[in-house]
Amino acid sequence: MTAHDNRVQPAASKGEFRKCEQLWFEDGNIIIVAENLGFRVYCGLLASISSVFMDLFSLSQPEGHELVEGCPVVRVTDSEADMKPFLTVIYNGSSIWKFNSTLPHYWAYTRSILLMSHKYQCEALLEEGKRKLSELVPSDIRVRDRVRPRIESDDFISVANVARFLDMRAVHRRALYECCQLDTIILTTGWVDEDGFRDRLCAEDVQACLAGRVRLSQERIKVLLNRFKETPPTRCAHSKTNPLSKYSFLDPAIFARPDTRCITVRKELLSMSVELATQGISYDPLALDPIYQSLPYGFCEPCTKSFTQTNRKLRQDILDNLVELFELPRIRPPTPEVEPAEDLEVGEDSEGAGEDAGMDEGEGEVDGEGEEDAEEFEED
Q: Going by DSSP bridges, is the β-strand pair 37-41/30-34 parallel, antiparallel, or unpaired?
């Protein structure tokens, strides 16, 4: 069982089908039909990038095979929602990501392209899809702070499932972090996507998230308590100069005393952080809270830089340490399943999903993901 098999449709029988206007080339020499949608394309291009299509097209056609407008028809079990973005990126290039770079289509297209590229062994396209997948959950806290999420929060369940299926372990961990921010019911039972399928995490990932939430809440408290714990650096501009010192001849006790503005602000922000840490449970220690966002206010430039770096390092350490926070196994985990929504009621036990599924050998991580996994195995 693979992540793609869960959305496989029965191959359509011979008969009428709708033409996909965007992917119906009058001089095309093969027609691919997914569900009830036909694509007239060029078999040579498909065969050149997909070993599966190459083998399929090399087979001799049986007598009486289906022809439409003189072109042979190949009916596949994939959904038209998956086949259309897959063929679009093959024939029109990666602009599909550019024109659908915002909600709600970005992840739907990316997911389809990833799974179809894996199924049909389009290696170059699969690697490009992996890069797009990695961009959804950045490994650098500075990028994470700067980039606006391109997908709905509920979609991170599907992101985690696809990353697990493709053996992208670092991406999988970061996706699970985002899943921890979901409502508990959605986290444990999944959610119904626009196609009517329930995306849900496998039991192993649900368990990792529930246990990880406890540790993430503890890490959030540590961040809040430690980011202003240290005194301002010795290069603090306010500690070295007092703008009123030129009036010290009037009253040295008042005008000659050192400027303690940064010290005062640090104490105030630390007190606010302590109060925030006691205001309820949060599983998001990577979040940019209002206190941090107001950091430049009242501080000199050196102190602002120092406390910004401290806060960033505390959060980056959490992002780098998710494998321990989730206590995930270092072996390849089983593949999650996606079930039709009507087969699962809200509140139903989530155990057992994906337990009987295997995982094929992945292509590894991209953009530094493989290095993280290599370090994990070295630790063992």
A: antiparallel
